[in-house]
């Protein structure tokens, strides 16, 4: 049985390798200092950021990060599911869907007007799940280097 719960500062050692695996999946590297900044933000009550972990037999097998922000389109806050990762050994067991649903519950608790997320167009495995649990809004993301 997979247990989904908020991560505590004591979970840092298990979260780090999973966050690293997530970044590797997207062929991205971040300096260790960014891991520290992110972890600190996730546990700062003044930050609108949240983190949940998925645990199987006491071992962390996945995580999800969520960020609340204002929107020009909605009167209520919006919830952005920024990062979702499930260890390859656990995929297909419903863990990703449970993590999404936990963020959806959090968004409802905060009376958010919307929950949304992005994924790469080539992420076929995740897109099968996302197409089942949510609607594709059809937007394309652009990035301008700064």
Low-pLDDT residue intervals, each spanning 5 or more residues: none
How helix-rich are the residues, as a percent range? 25-40%
Strand content: 25-35%
Question: At the first level of CATH, what is the class?
Answer: Alpha Beta
- What are the secondary-structure elements, in order, as H or E? EHHEEEHEH
What structural category arises from helix and sheet content? Answer: alpha+beta
How is the CATH topology named?
A: Aminopeptidase
What do these coordinates show?
There is one protein chain. With 146 residues, the chain is of the alpha+beta class. It has a single domain (2-133), classed as Aminopeptidase, CATH 3.40.630.30. Helices cover 34% and strands 25% of the residues. The protein has four helices and five strands; from the N terminus they run E-H-H-E-E-E-H-E-H. It has helices spanning 12-25, 32-42, 95-109, 124-133; strands at 2-6, 49-56, 59-69, 78-86, 114-117. A five-stranded mixed beta sheet has the order 1-2-3-4-5, with helices on both faces. The chain is globular and about 40 Å long. The model has no long low-confidence stretch (mean pLDDT 96).
What's the short version?
This protein is of the alpha+beta class. The chain has one domain: Gcn5-related N-acetyltransferase (GNAT) (Aminopeptidase), CATH 3.40.630.30. It is built from four helices and five strands, in the order βααβββαβα.
Write the layout of secondary structure elements.
Elements: E1 2-6, H1 12-25, H2 32-42, E2 49-56, E3 59-69, E4 78-86, H3 95-109, E5 114-117, H4 124-133
Parallel strand pairs: 4-5
Antiparallel strand pairs: 1-2, 2-3, 3-4
